[in-house]
Amino acid sequence: MSGWVLYQRDDCHLCDLALEVLAQARVPEFDSVFIDDDAQLEARYGTRVPVFGDGTGRELDWPFDAATLQQWLQTRQA
In terms of CB atoms within 10 Å, which end of the chain has fewer, N or C? Predict the structure, then answer.
């Protein structure tokens, strides 16, 4: 498992756009976590979604494009 996760909501247009960016950036594997039915996640992410995280506490808030995401991913590996 990569540790990467996309925090999102059901029926979220911005989340759909973020999924497209993840595909463009060729992120190989990530988990999708829907915050709608989790009070703790709702409190943490609320209107920030979509948020992409790497499992170490680093998070990338929307908006981001494929180039920004690729750069962010590379800094994880450095």
Answer: C
**Contact yes or no for 10/36 (Cβ under 8 A):** yes
Residue 6 parent element (H or E): strand 5-8
The low-confidence residues of the chain, meaning pLDDT below 70, are 1-2, 76-78
Residue 26 parent element (H or E): none
β pairing state of 31-34 and 5-8:
parallel
Q: How far apart are CA 78 and CA 65, in angstroms?
A: 20
pLDDT in tens, 56-67: 899 999 999 999
Structure tokens at 47: 């209107």
Taken as a whole, the chain contains a residue count of 78
Question: Both tokens of residue 12?
Answer: 């979220």
Can you point out the beta strands (E) in 9-73?
A: 31-34, 51-53, 59-61
